[in-house]
Amino acid sequence: MYPTSVVDRYLTLSHPGFLRAISYAKTKTNKQDINNNMSFKNLAEYTFENGFFWNNYKSIESDFLRFLEYSPYHESNLKMYSPKLTGMLLQIGGYVDSAFKEMTSYFNPEAYDKKGNRKKKIIVNIKDVFCVFETIYNLSSNNRGTAVAKLDFGDLELYPFEEFSSQEFKSPAWWTAYNKVKHEYSLHYKKASMDNVLNGLAGAFLLNAIHYPSIKILWQLGYLEAGMKTGTGFHGFEYREKDIDDIISTAASEFKPVNIGLRIETPLFIYFHE
Predict the structure, then answer these.
(1) Where are the alpha helices (DSSP H) in 108-172?
(2) Is the pTM for the entire model greater than 0.85?
(3) What burial letters (b/e) apply to 192-218, b meaning 16+ CB within 10 Å?
(4) pLDDT in tens, 65-86
(5) What are the strands, taking DSSP E only, across the chain?
(6) Contact criterion met (CB below 8 Å) for 133 and 156
(7) For residue 159, which phi and psi values (nearest 5 degrees)?
(8) φ, ψ for residue 74 (rounded to 5)?
(9) Cα distance from N-terminal residue to C-terminal residue, the chain
(10) How far apart are CA 124 and CA 113, in angstroms?
């Protein structure tokens, strides 16, 4: 997580209102607000709460796994590029962009323009949003968890937002590649590489693993096990739905990670949070 002074300086210089938005959210968001937001949100919308983002993520992951059947993730293939990988990188980038926008509506912060005037539009710049969610979810450290890709030639621990820990606030390499391919494909098509696609996909997976309402739906669907890590394994505990709701609403009202161990697994990734 960024040192507070660095975060404050960046937000103040780039968009003063975001600092106020976070301050507002911290003072106005409480357990009841969180519960009301989840209860009254229109579940016909495309949200984390109703599993829409998770289902879309699984579709992208399945496409990548099929690609790996023909071209395994290996050191000699990391810079491989192809039209198929291009499509996946563009899909992943658009997914992450939309996911961050949806995540802001969960906290419903008040956004301000550069003069400090309130605006209706919450999202102003995706880089501002990256920085805001680094302060909430510690993205650079996987929310103090571990994300591992299960690959043919060995497991690979990934930190898809690691660059956010930099004093210079660099965007992730895969996000930069996505933007370059999206806007100047003829010049940057080689950046649609297997390595960038895997790291971008890990970023999309991580957002599902750490965002408060997503934790609830993954638990309901059976992808998430709550308990504690034991050596090389994981010991799950039995929780009631009310227990999970209380744990999530407490963490969300305090902008802290949930205070239980989590294990989330897909065919490609495993995420542990102790």
Answers:
(1) 126-137
(2) no
(3) bbbbbbbbbbbbbbbbbbbbbbbbbbb
(4) 999 999 988 888 889 999 999 9
(5) 111-112, 118-119, 146-149, 156-158, 224-230, 233-236, 261-265, 269-273
(6) no
(7) -130, 85
(8) -140, 155
(9) 17
(10) 9
